[in-house]
Specification:
nine-stranded mixed beta sheet, alpha/beta, Rossmann fold, single chain, 16 helices, eight-stranded parallel barrel, 2 domains
C-alpha cells in the first residue's frame, strides 16, 4: 500500500480525498504532524474555505516550514483547491496575509458577469507535457491564479476569463480543481501523480467554460431512498449506496442526498449513509436535512459530504448561513429554497417543513438575502411541481436567476430531457431530478445525450 499523508487543516473536506486515494490503492493517513510532512513519501494539502483561515491553520499546526521545505525539494506533493492557493504569495481574498510563497503570484477573484462561486465541471487544457491530460475537472472556488507563474508548467481553464487550473514542477502538483471529485479523469490524474508517469496525448476539447450539470437526488429516510409527490406519500425507492454508484457510472455530475428522517436516530443513520455513499462516489455530494448549527454540518462534512444544504433552520435563523460560510466557505453552503406560488397568484413564498408550512416570506427576497449572508449556491425546488412530472416552474426559476449571481440548481417536476433543457434555457446552472431516474424512465447518460446538441455536457470517457 502506498503511504500518503493528508494534511488535516480544518479547512478541508478530507473524506472525499481519503476515499479517492483508497480507490487508487493508497493507504492515506490524516493528521497535522510536521514530521510526517517532512518524511512521508507522498503528501496531500487539500483545502476549502478562506485563504486567511487556511494559512492560520498551517501556522497553528507548525506546518509552514515543513511544507515549504518539501515543495522546494520537489518531493511528491499534491495541493488541492485552497491548498494550491496557499502555495501562492498572496490572495485578494485576504489582503495583507502572506501565503507560503512557493508559487510566485497573487490569487485574484474571478471576474464579474459569471456565477461565483465557480461550481461544477469545466474544461482543463494542459499547456505542456506532464501528469494532466485534456479533459473536464470539477471546480469549487471564487478565487484563482490568473497568470502563469514562472518556473511552473500549467494547465488552463476559463470562467469569465482564463485562469490557471493546475501548475506542476517535477513531482509537485497544484490543482485549483478537485481531482478526487473529477470522476475517472480525476482518478487517472491521481494514479499518475502516485506513480510519476506522464499523461498520454489526448484530444483537446473545442469548447470552454462550465458544463451544465445533471444532478440526481436521493431523498433518504432511515437509510433508504424514498420518493413522493409534493414531499408527501413517500415510498421506498432503493438503496442509496447502490443508487449513487449507478448514477455516477451513468455520468452524474454530482449527487444530492436529502435526509428526510425526523428523529435523533435518523441523524446518526444519515452520517453512516453519507460515509457509505462517499466510499463509492467520485463526484461531489451535497447533503441536507437536519442541519441546525455548525456542528451538524461539520459532522456531515467529516462523513463525506462536499457541500451542505440548509432550509428550515436558515429561515428560522438566517445567521446560520453566515456561520457556515465563515467556517467552511461559501462554495460549501447551499440554500435549499422550497417555494410555492402565493395563494393569490402574485409571486412565490418560502415553504418549510416539507411544504407543510407557508412562511409568507417572499422567495426572491429570501434568495437575495441568503446570497448576501454567505450561501454559495441555491437549490430551488418548486413545491407546486415536485414529483408531478409537469416540468419545472420556469417563471420562478427565471426570477431567481435574475435576482442572484450564485449558481442555481432547478428542482421539482421533471419528467424527461425536454423539461431539463427548458430549465437550462431559463438560466439554471444545474438541473436536479429524482423520479425519472429512480423509476427507470431514463438514465443520466441518455439525458445527457439528448441535451448535448443544445447545452454543454460533460460526457465521461475512460481514464486517459
Amino acid at each position: 500500500m502506498i503511504d500518503v499523508f493528508v494534511v488535516q487543516t480544518g479547512t478541508a473536506n478530507t473524506a472525499s480525498v481519503v476515499a479517492a486515494l483508497r480507490r487508487a490503492g493508497a493507504a492515506p493517513d490524516v493528521g497535522v504532524d510536521a514530521g510526517r510532512v517532512a518524511t512521508a513519501p507522498f503528501v496531500v494539502l487539500p483545502g476549502v474555505g478562506s485563504f486567511a483561515h487556511g494559512m492560520a491553520a498551517l501556522r497553528r499546526a507548525g506546518l509552514v516550514d515543513a511544507l515549504r521545505a518539501r515543495v522546494e525539494e520537489g518531493r511528491p506533493t499534491l495541493a488541492i483547491c485552497l491548498g494550491m492557493q496557499l502555495l501562492c504569495a498572496a490572495s485578494e481574498e485576504s489582503p495583507g496575509e502572506e501565503g507560503l510563497g512557493l508559487i510566485d503570484g497573487t490569487v485574484r477573484r474571478l471576474p464579474a458577469g459569471v456565477s461565483v462561486p465557480h461550481l461544477g465541471w469545466t474544461v482543463v487544457q494542459p499547456a505542456g507535457e506532464g501528469p494532466l491530460s485534456a479533459g473536464e475537472a470539477c471546480f469549487a472556488h471564487s478565487f484563482a491564479l490568473r497568470d502563469a507563474p514562472p518556473g511552473w508548467q500549467v494547465a488552463w481553464s476559463e470562467h469569465g476569463a482564463p485562469f490557471v487550473a493546475a501548475a506542476w514542477r517535477g513531482r509537485v502538483l497544484a490543482c485549483q480543481f478537485h481531482p478526487e471529485l473529477s470522476g475517472t479523469w480525476g482518478a487517472g490524474l491521481l494514479a499518475r501523480w502516485l506513480d510519476g508517469s506522464a499523461a498520454a496525448a489526448a484530444a483537446v476539447p473545442t469548447r470552454h467554460g462550465p458544463s451544465a450539470r445533471i444532478v440526481p437526488c436521493l431523498d433518504v429516510r432511515d437509510g433508504r431512498v424514498v420518493k413522493g409527490i409534493r414531499f408527501q406519500g413517500l415510498r421506498d425507492a432503493g438503496d442509496p449506496v447502490a443508487q449513487a454508484a449507478r448514477y455516477a457510472a451513468q455520468g452524474a455530475d454530482e449527487l444530492v442526498l436529502l435526509d428526510v428522517s425526523a428523529t435523533p436516530d435518523g441523524r446518526a443513520t444519515a452520517a453512516e449513509t453519507v460515509a457509505a455513499v462517499r466510499a463509492v462516489l467520485d463526484v461531489p455530494l451535497t447533503v441536507g436535512g437536519g442541519i441546525r448549527q455548525v456542528a451538524d454540518a461539520e459532522r456531515l462534512l467529516r462523513a463525506g459530504a462536499d457541500k451542505v444544504g440548509v432550509n428550515s433552520a436558515a429561515v428560522a435563523r438566517p445567521a446560520l448561513l453566515g456561520e457556515l460560510s465563515d467556517r467552511f466557505g461559501a462554495q460549501c453552503v447551499v440554500l435549499a429554497l422550497d417555494a410555492a406560488r402565493r395563494q393569490d397568484g402574485d409571486g412565490w413564498e418560502v415553504v418549510v417543513r416539507s411544504g407543510k408550512e407557508r412562511t409568507g416570506i417572499d422567495a426572491i427576497a429570501w434568495a437575495q438575502q441568503a446570497e448576501q449572508l454567505g450561501a454559495g449556491e441555491i437549490l430551488l425546488t418548486s413545491w407546486d411541481r415536485d414529483g408531478t412530472g409537469e416540468g419545472y416552474d420556469l417563471p420562478l426559476l427565471a426570477a431567481i436567476r435574475a435576482a442572484v449571481s450564485v449558481p442555481v440548481i432547478a428542482s421539482g417536476g421533471a419528467a424527461g430531457p425536454g423539461h431539463l433543457s427548458d430549465a437550462l434555457d431559463a438560466g439554471a446552472d444545474a438541473v436536479l431530478a429524482a423520479s425519472i431516474f429512480h423509476d427507470g424512465h431514463t438514465t443520466v447518460g441518455a439525458v445527457k445525450a439528448a441535451l448535448a446538441s443544445r447545452h454543454p455536457m460533460r460526457i465521461p470517457r475512460e481514464t486517459s
